[in-house]
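testing teh design pipeline on a random one, pls ignore if ur not involved
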């Protein structure tokens, strides 16, 4: 069935337990056709288990997995129209690149001439047209990963699953492969589910990101929303650097007070809240800088300064003892005079702050 309006993939109340370990817990998630979806989480958070349940190499303890609106509990892996790429390539060492890529076609009983045609097309798609006769050991890590990608795409799957596929490559190759993966996904219009523990990789590639922790899907949103409006302390800290600050609610959530300074919120908060401030949104001013009465600025003492090349990361302590991070760029007011022990003013605009349900702070 290929109804375009149905999600490509739907996890419905999916739980997978191994004895006492709950690897995946109550996951509900729809992924649209043609979407590039990143599953992001640290090691052991349940990402691979979720992929294995979708690919059909494992079965849920509870709930069900749907592909294009049909439950697949009785569908074996090779009939789910899913290609899989793992971090460790898993190429057959005794087969050439072309033979590796041809393997899934052979398994599906595709005849020799069609096989050759499709292997050539797949090798060309990953820019390896001339390397069909090479054995894996004669190829670089990046080239081997391309062969694995060609092998996963050669039979024309609707869905491509990738489990930390670029983890073994160095930074430059990884950046290059990221762009190429996006190009290939565009060319084929295929649905991609991409597992990574690297937040910058997820941000750079995905239409939407799902954050996993302890088997649970904590938040699903596009990269901008996850960054600007994280739903919990965990998500805020997992995606980029930030300061999470305890504040006193003012005027029934329309604003807050922190270390004696008062500021509005862009939208009133309805429950007890903490605020998230990203370092790039904090400006530092000289302590005696005259400010108009309504401008928000809170006194802070510099504790630590780290040179980043593009500027400086400054760790500050507020009057109430809380820690705050700020980025100072070359050319900023205080760029030449950042010394530990110095007292300054820190300021940010209302719209740059996100509100989180309050949690115990470390
Ligand atoms: P990730 O891919 O995010 O690193 P996994 O899905 O591999 O996480 O694992 C999630 C949790 O489930 C871990 O605690 C892991 O030890 C456990 N787990 C995964 N597979 C098995 C298994 N076959 N038997 C027992 N425990 C498992
Ligand atoms: Mg894994």
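output:
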């Amino acid at each position: 069935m290929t109804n375009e309006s149905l999600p490509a993939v739907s996890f419905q109340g999916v739980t997978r337990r191994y004895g006492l370990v709950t690897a995946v817990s109550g996951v509900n998630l729809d992924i649209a056709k043609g979407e590039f979806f990143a599953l992001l989480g640290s090691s052991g958070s349940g990402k691979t288990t979720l992929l294995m349940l979708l690919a059909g190499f494992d079965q849920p303890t509870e709930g069900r997995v749907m592909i294009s609106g049909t439950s697949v509990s009785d569908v074996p892996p090779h009939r789910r129209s899913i290609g899989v790429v793992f971090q460790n390539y898993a190429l057959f060492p005794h087969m050439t690149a072309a033979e590796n890529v041809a393997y899934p076609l052979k398994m599906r009983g595709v005849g020799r001439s069609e096989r050759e045609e499709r292997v050539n097309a797949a090798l060309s798609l990953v820019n390896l047209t001339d390397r069909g006769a090479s054995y894996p050991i004669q190829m670089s890590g990046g080239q081997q990963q391309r062969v694995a990608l060609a092998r996963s795409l050669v039979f024309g799957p609707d869905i491509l699953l990738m489990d930390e596929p670029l983890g073994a490559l160095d930074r430059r190759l990884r950046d290059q492969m990221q762009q190429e993966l996006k190009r290939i996904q565009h060319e084929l219009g295929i649905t991609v589910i991409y597992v990574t523990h690297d937040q910058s990789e997820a941000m750079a590639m995905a239409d939407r990101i799902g954050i996993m922790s302890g088997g649970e899907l904590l938040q699903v949103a596009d990269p901008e929303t996850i960054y600007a409006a994280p739903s919990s302390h965990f998500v805020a800290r997992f995606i980029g650097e930030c300061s999470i600050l305890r504040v006193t609610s003012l005027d029934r959530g329309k604003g807050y007070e922190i270390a004696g300074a008062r500021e509005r919120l862009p939208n009133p908060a309805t429950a007890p809240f903490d605020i998230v401030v990203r370092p790039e949104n904090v400006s530092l001013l000289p302590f005696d800088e005259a400010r108009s009465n309504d401008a928000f600025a809170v006194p802070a003492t510099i504790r630590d300064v780290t040179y980043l090349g593009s500027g400086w990361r400054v760790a500050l302590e507020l009057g109430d003892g809380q820690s705050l991070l700020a980025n100072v760029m070359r050319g900023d007011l205080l760029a030449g005079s950042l010394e530990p022990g110095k007292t300054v003013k820190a300021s940010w605009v209302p719209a740059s702050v996100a509100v989180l349900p309050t949690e115990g702070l470390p």
